[in-house]
Here is the input.
Amino acid sequence: MPQLASYLCGAFATGKGEMVPLLNPATEEVVAHAGCGGVDLGAALRFAREQGGPALRALTFAQRGELLAKLASTIADHRDELIETSVANGGTTRGGGKFDIDGAAGTLQAYAELGKKLGAARELVDGEPVLIGRGAKLAGRHAWLAREGVAVLINAFNFPAWGFAEKAATALLAGMPVINKPATATAWTAVRLAELLVAANVLPAGAFQQLLGGVGPLLDALGPQDVVAFTGSSATGTTVRSLPALLRHGVRVNVEADSLNAAVVGGGVEPGSSAWQTLLRDVVREMTEKSGQKCTATRRVIVPEALVAPLVEELADRLGALKIGNPANKEVELGPLATRQQRDDLHAGCARLRKSCEVAFGVERPATLIDVPAGKGFFAGPMLFVARDAKAVDETHRDELFGPVTTIVPYSGAPNDAIALVGRGGGMLVTSVYAEARDWCETVAKGIAPWVGRVCLVDSKSEGITLPPGMVLPDLIHGGPGRAGGGEELGGARGLHHFMGRTAFEGPRALVERLFGAGT
Amino acid sequence: MPQLASYLCGAFATGKGEMVPLLNPATEEVVAHAGCGGVDLGAALRFAREQGGPALRALTFAQRGELLAKLASTIADHRDELIETSVANGGTTRGGGKFDIDGAAGTLQAYAELGKKLGAARELVDGEPVLIGRGAKLAGRHAWLAREGVAVLINAFNFPAWGFAEKAATALLAGMPVINKPATATAWTAVRLAELLVAANVLPAGAFQQLLGGVGPLLDALGPQDVVAFTGSSATGTTVRSLPALLRHGVRVNVEADSLNAAVVGGGVEPGSSAWQTLLRDVVREMTEKSGQKCTATRRVIVPEALVAPLVEELADRLGALKIGNPANKEVELGPLATRQQRDDLHAGCARLRKSCEVAFGVERPATLIDVPAGKGFFAGPMLFVARDAKAVDETHRDELFGPVTTIVPYSGAPNDAIALVGRGGGMLVTSVYAEARDWCETVAKGIAPWVGRVCLVDSKSEGITLPPGMVLPDLIHGGPGRAGGGEELGGARGLHHFMGRTAFEGPRALVERLFGAGT
Here is the structure.
C-alpha cells in the first residue's frame, strides 16, 4: 500500500508526523497512508525563497513557459495512471477523473503558450509610458515584477490535479516558487503527480515543493513578499484570510470559494427549444459531474413559474436514468462523495432544504448501488428540490449543498426579479443565463455581473457551441465577489498579477523608456 | 466659533454625540468644535446604496467626469479660504496648505478629464474579446462594472482635502457613492470642503456623505458590494483590515499606509553635481513640507560612506536657515506637528533613534519659535540622524518618525547592498534613486521594485525636470506592498478598479461582442 510523503527541500520524506489513512469512498477500504507533518517548514521556506525564486526569476517568460509545457506533457503521458488514482481515492468516475487530469494538462499548456508569447521579458509592462506635466520631459510607466517570496497553494479535495495546475501555472510563469498543500483525503493523485513532475526533472531546485498535513504553521511564517492562493469552502477561506500573521504582514491572500452559482432562465425560452436543450444538458452535467462536488456547480435554477413542471419532468427523466455506484465499474455514471464528512454535511443540508422546498426528484441514498458492499460508501443520490416560495426561502440562497443536488426557484420571468434572486446568493463564481431575447439577456447579464465572476450566455444559436458553465477556462478569470471569496485566478496574463507586484517608475523620459523599452 | 457637523442623508447635523474641541497646533487655542457620533448610520448607508449608487451608475463616465470638474473648480474658487483653515487647524504653512488644496483640485480635474476620455460608456472593458476553442464561435470578454455598495473613505489628518479627493475622484468616476470619514483633529478643512461641495449642488443625492467621529460601527455594517479605502498608519491599517465583519463578508479593503520611504544615492553621484543638487532639494523638501507629515516623506537616505560628510554639511546649512514657528506668520517655513500625540510620538521615536544613531543636526524643540506663546505648540525641530552601523541598526528601518526627521544610512555603494537596505523597510510607498550611471540606476530600480510602489529616477539630466518623490500623481499608482499597506490608489483608470468588479462574459461570439461592442 502506498506511503504518501511530502516533497520538501528536494526530497520525498514522510516526516515524523502521524500517518493518515486514505479511503476509497465507494467501498471505505483504505487505499494509501499519508505521512502528515513533522517536517522542517523553515528549511522549506528558505529553499523556496533563496533557491527556487532566484532561479525562476533568472529565466525569461519564454523559458518558464517551456518548463510548463514539459509539466503538461508529463501529465498527459501518465493520464491513465492518474485517472486510476482519482477513481480509487477520489471516488470519481473515469469521466470525472479525466476532467481533473486533462484540465490540469490543458491549463499548464495554455500558460506555456502565454509564456512563449511574452517572450524574452522577465517583467510585464502595464500600459504605455505616460508623459507627466508640461514639456514632455518627465515620464511614468507601470510594470509588474515577480514577488520575491513563496506562493503557498492550498487546494480542495475535489481537484487534486487541476486545482494545483491552475495555481502553479500562473505562479511559476510569474516567477514565484510554490509550496503546494493538497487536501489530505484525496492526496494520492496529488502525490503521484508530484512524483511524476519531480521524476521529469524539469523545474529548478526549490521551485516546487508539496506539504501533506496541516498548513497553519507554514502560513504563520509568511511575510510581505509571499502569496497564499486558496481554494475551498467560504468558511475556511474566511478563516485563512483572518489569520493574524497574514494580516499583520499584509500577505496577499487570494480566495476562490464555493458559492451558490445559478442558472437563470427567461427571455422567451420555450420547452423543446435549442436554449432549453442546452439548459438540460448543463444542469444535469453540473449536478452530476464529480458528483456535484465542483465549486462551479449549479446550485440554483431560477425558472419562470410556467416552466417549472416541464423542467422537473425532463430533468427527472435524465437523472432517473443514471447508473450510480462504484466508479471502478466503468458503466457507473455517478460515484460517491469524496468523504464521510462531505456526505454527512450534504445530507444535513438536504434535511434543512426539505423544510422550505418540495423534493421533486430523488432520495438521500439510492436503494440500488452498483458494485458497492452493503451499507458502505459515501453515496448521495441526485436530488431536485423546488422552492415553495422564492422570496421566503433562505436556505437555497444561503447553504451550499456540495453534491448532486440543486434547487429550482420559480419566479415571475421579469429581469429585475431574476437579478434580485441571483444577488441573494451573495457572490458567485459563475451564473449562466438562458434566453432567446437578446435585450433580456443583456439586461440580466449586466445586472447580475456585480455579483458574479463569470457570466455564461446561452441563446437559440448556442447548441453545440457553448461549454457547460462549470468548465473553468484559462483565458477567463475564475473567482467571484463576496461569498465566492472575492478573489480571481487565471484569465490569461491577469492570472500572473497575483504573484507579482505593480510598481510605477517615474523620471526623465529617456531613463524611464530605457527600463522596459519604448513601447509594448 | 464653528460647530462642525457630519453631512448625512442630505443634511448637516451635529448628532447627539460628544463635541470635540479642535486646536490650533501652533498656539493650542481651540478653533472649532466637532460634533461626533450620535447619528443614524443605517439610514446613511441606505441613502448611499439606494439613491446615490443608482443615480451615479445611470450616468456615463463623461457625465460623472463633468461632476468632478465642477467639484475641482469649486475647490479652486475657494482656495484661499481653505488654505486659511489648513493653517489655523492643521498647523501647515501656506505652502503646505496649498499643496493639499491644489492637490485635491488637480486630482479631481485629472479624473474629470479621464471621464471625458472614457466617454459614453458606463463599464470599462478589459481587453479585446478572446476566442475560445476551435471554430471561433465561442468568445469571452472581461469588463469592470461598478460595485453596488458604498465606498467608505477613511482619511488621515495630514491631507484633509487631497486624501479625500483622490479617493472620491476614483470612486465617483467608477460609479460608487462615498461616505468620507476625515480625521477629527484636522476636520475643519474637510467640513468646510463638504459645505462648499454641497452648496455647489453638483452631485446626485446620496453620492456624497461625511461622518465625523468613530467609523467602527459603520464598518461593522458593510457587505460584499462595499469598499473601504483607508489611509493612515500601518498599525491602524492592520486593525481595519482585521475587522471580523469585513473579513466575513469579503469587503474589499484598500490600505495606503505610512512607510519607511528611502532615497538611495550611488552610481557615481558627486557632491556639487546636478543629481546632487536634486538630492538636496528633495531631502529638504520631503523633511519639511507639511512638517514631514506625509506618508510619502523620505525617512531614510542611503548614501555611500564617502558622501555622508558633505551631505550632512549641506543639509545642515539648509535646515539651519529655516524659519520655524506659527504659520499664521507668512515668513514661517516650518510649522508645528498637527497634534500633541503626533509630537509626543515623534519625540519618543527620536529618543529610540538616539541609541543607535548620531544626531548630525537639530534638536527636538527649537529654542526660537516665531510668534508662538511660550511653551505652547506641538513643535518638532528638523533633525538629521546618521546611523552608526547600517547593518546593525533596526530602528531606522522599523520605526516611522512622522515629522521633520530623517536618518542617513551609510553603505558601500554597491547595488546589492543598496537593494538589501531599501528592502529592510518591509514595503514602501516611494523610493528615489539618484545615480549618474544608467546601468547602476536600472539595476537598483528593478532590484528594489518588489518592495516599492513608486520608484523615482534621478540622473545628471534631471535638474528642473523631476518632481520631488513625495508628490503623488494621478496618473501613477500610489501605494506599496507589505508595511505600506499592500494597496493601490490612483494610476489613471487603474484607480477605478478598486470600486468596480471584474466579470468575464462567455458565450456565442455575436452575443458577447454585442455587450460592449466588438473592440475598444
In short: The mean pLDDT of chain B is 95. Chain B is about 35% helix and 25% strand. The CA atoms of residues 310 and 392 of chain B lie 23 Å apart. The longest helix of chain B spans residues 94-118.
